[in-house]
Write a structure and sequence with these properties.
Layout lengths: L6 E3 L18 H14 L3 E4 L1 E2 L5 E2 L2 H14 L3 E4 L9 H6 L7 E5 L3 E3 L2 E3 L3 H14 L2 E6 L2 H14 L8 E6 L9 H10 L5 E6 L4 H10 L3 E4 L6 E3 L2 E2 L3 H14 L7 H8 L4
Parallel strand pairs: 1-2, 1-12, 2-5, 5-6, 6-9, 9-10, 10-11, 11-12
Antiparallel strand pairs: 3-4, 7-8, 13-14
The chain binds (5S)-5-amino-3-OXO-hexanoic acid and zinc ion (ZN).
InterPro entries: Aldolase_TIM, BKACE
Organism: Actinomadura monticuli
Cofactor: Zn(2+)
Length: about 270
């Protein structure tokens, strides 16, 4: 098998309002439909934030459980629940997300300014998430918004050991106002600092989406795309379906001679629970 590219789709996020972005999938039906389209377009992992009946971000456990079940019934995608939630979510709710027993969870490796807000991830919370994910056999994706967070990841692994499955997978989240910029030289610096043997994807927020995608492909990385991270294809051209972003990523990966990885191969790479 030749080299392939793991594509993660992050279809919803917690930041955009449905009223502003009508194509955002916010109901379970919309999410499942999006997931099917994105799987057909080449995604292997889905990074999930859910909404309540008023389309506001929620970490309601029973909704999360229903979401995991529905995505597993309708797709072969690896289901990754966000433990980041919205910037206003309390730590206990974010930790409880793991009780929905997804295949994967996000685990951000430090606090970062997040536009006008602060995304809080203090060390004791990181440790709690890491230990709970080990206990429940959920594979974390370590989210890195800044170079200092790479150092925190090393410290976490040194002190508390490898995650469930024994493999370290990271996602560089670039271009957040307050985090590392979305450019090639920063991407290379972050990748060079990762733990040996780690695999990684990268995503660029907003207008850094394409530069980060091309930098990641040329540096041998994987890709994350989706309306959580960008809601336009180009200036003045709104995304009308997440699958458009996945199709574009799959085309770029194929052009780079590393076509999309199947979900089955991604399960083997990430060592998610069978
Ligand atoms: N919504 C952001 C505050 C994650 O999913 O783990 C955090 C976020 C990261 O989206
Ligand atoms: Zn997220």
């Amino acid at each position: 098998m030749g080299a392939t590219t793991l594509i993660t789709v992050a279809p919803t996020g917690a930041e955009s309002a449905k009223a502003d972005v009508p194509a955002l999938p916010v109901t379970l039906d919309e999410l499942v439909q999006t997931a099917k389209e994105c799987e057909a377009a080449g995604a292997a992992v889905i990074h999930v934030h859910i909404r309540d009946d008023d389309a506001r971000p929620t970490l309601d456990l029973s909704r999360l459980r229903d979401t995991v079940t529905a995505l597993r019934e309708s797709t072969g995608l690896i289901v990754q629940l966000s433990t980041g939630g919205a910037v206003t979510d309390p730590y206990e709710d974010r930790l409880r997300v793991l009780d929905a027993l997804p295949d994967m969870c996000s685990l951000t490796c430090g606090t970062v300014n997040f536009g006008d807000d602060v995304f809080m991830n203090p060390w004791p919370f990181m440790v709690k998430l890491h230990k709970r994910a080990q206990e429940l056999e959920v594979v974390p994706e370590f989210e890195l918004f800044d170079l200092g967070q790479v150092t925190a990841l090393h410290r976490l692994l040194d002190k508390y050991g490898l995650p469930y499955g024994g493999h370290v997978h990271c996602d560089l989240v670039m271009g957040v106002p307050g985090g590392m910029p979305g450019d090639a030289r920063t991407l290379v610096a972050a990748v060079e600092a990762l733990p040996p043997g780690a695999t990684w994807s990268a995503t660029g927020i907003g207008r850094t989406s394409l530069p980060v995608m091309f930098a990641a492909l040329s540096a041998g990385g994987h890709l994350r795309v989706g309306m959580e991270d960008t809601v336009t294809l180009a200036k003045g051209q709104p995304v009308t379906a997440n699958a458009q972003l996945v199709v574009r990523a799959a085309q770029a990966a194929t052009l780079a001679q590393r076509p999309p990885m199947s979900a089955a191969d991604a399960r083997t790479l990430l060592n998610t629970k069978p």
